[in-house]
Amino acid sequence: QVQLVESGGGLVQAGGSLRLSCAASEKIFGLNAMGWYRQAPGKQRELAAVVTSDGSTNYADSVKGRFTISRDNAKNTVLLQMNSLKPEDTAVYYCKAEAVSTLSTRNYWGQGTQVTVSS
Fold it and tell me: Cys bridge to 30: 13, 14, 99, 104, which one at CB 3.0-4.6 A?
């Protein structure tokens, strides 16, 4: 069973930076998009950033210009560089990997890593 292992969360002051990392425990066949989602207390999980297998990226409007997503296809890893952090970025951040085959699409999720931004 493939597992996504996240690291890099923590507590930071507003204006600071953090880098999140997510690595798959084994090769994911048919790996397509990889992304980061976040869920703040009392809110629904939302997309923060996603990168496709060809390197195309998409960001939530709230993080554009501050967050940068990147991936290493050979290592099945995805990074999220977060700069100029704001208190409203506080959330649990989840890594997601999408695997596509001719028959189905399967999504893998990490366990989540807490990011707390103090004002």
Answer: 99
Does residue 76 sit in helix, strand or coil? coil
Cα 118 to chain centroid, rounded: 21
pLDDT digits (tens, 9 = 90+) for 35-89: 999 999 999 999 999 999 999 999 999 999 999 999 998 888 999 999 999 999 9
Nearest to residue 77, comparing CAs of 85, 69, 89? 69
CB 45 within 8 A of CB 94: yes
In the chain, % of residues over pLDDT 90: 87
- Could you tell me which residues come within 8 angstroms of residue 67 by beta carbon, excluding any fewer than 6 positions away? 48, 49, 59, 80, 81, 82, 83
Task: Give the pLDDT confidence score for residue 106 in this predicted structure.
Answer: 94
